Amino acid sequence: MFGRAKEKTRPQQPGGTAGAPTPGPVPAKPGGKGRPTPSRSEAQARNRRPLVPADRKAARTAARQALREERARMQQALLTGDERHLPARDRGPRKRLARDVVDARHNLGEWFLVVALISLVLSSVTQAFGSLVLVWATTGLIYLMLAAVVVDSVLLSRRIKRAEVERFGDAERGVASYGVMRALQVRRLRRPVPQVKRGEQPR
């Protein structure tokens, strides 16, 4: 007891056992991203955006500018037939087929408004002269033209549906009525503008 030297105690490392080696940095896993995976709360905080922009006036100005540009592209598409910027009601291969079927034929519907306007003018003139025969004649002309337009519209609707079935295998609801409404417009005023001439086959 008296001749044995006291053993020197090694200093204890903070947070560990005496004499234990200090752990070094953990090596990066091969193929890893080299950084710790963020927690769910951190990811949500990073993806969170303010609902109201800081500069509301600048945001409104930018929104109006974007809307004007979109309308300009849409107007240009109505004149060129560019499918990318057409309105939703005119977009799609089925609507394009219906437009081509309508534009490739002569439609009585586009002449209905012209005939109706002429008949009204003649009716007014004949009433001024007191001729009831001409009044009834002009009125009958309007109804006769209307009946012819209805028959022509039914034939056009069947033709559009038949073209749909031949190309796509079925007829989608609303496409035929879309074509009939287009046929009631004067060819020069139709939008999108016609892409085929009369008598040509649909694209």
TrEMBL record:
<protein>
    <submittedName>
        <fullName>DUF3043 domain-containing protein</fullName>
    </submittedName>
</protein>
<keyword id="KW-0812">Transmembrane</keyword>
<keyword id="KW-1133">Transmembrane helix</keyword>
<dbReference type="InterPro" id="IPR021403">
    <property type="entry name" value="DUF3043"/>
</dbReference>
<dbReference type="Pfam" id="PF11241">
    <property type="entry name" value="DUF3043"/>
</dbReference>
<feature type="transmembrane region" description="Helical">
    <location>
        <begin position="135"/>
        <end position="157"/>
    </location>
</feature>
<feature type="transmembrane region" description="Helical">
    <location>
        <begin position="111"/>
        <end position="129"/>
    </location>
</feature>
<keyword id="KW-0472">Membrane</keyword>
<feature type="compositionally biased region" description="Basic and acidic residues">
    <location>
        <begin position="1"/>
        <end position="10"/>
    </location>
</feature>
<feature type="region of interest" description="Disordered">
    <location>
        <begin position="1"/>
        <end position="69"/>
    </location>
</feature>
<feature type="compositionally biased region" description="Low complexity">
    <location>
        <begin position="11"/>
        <end position="21"/>
    </location>
</feature>
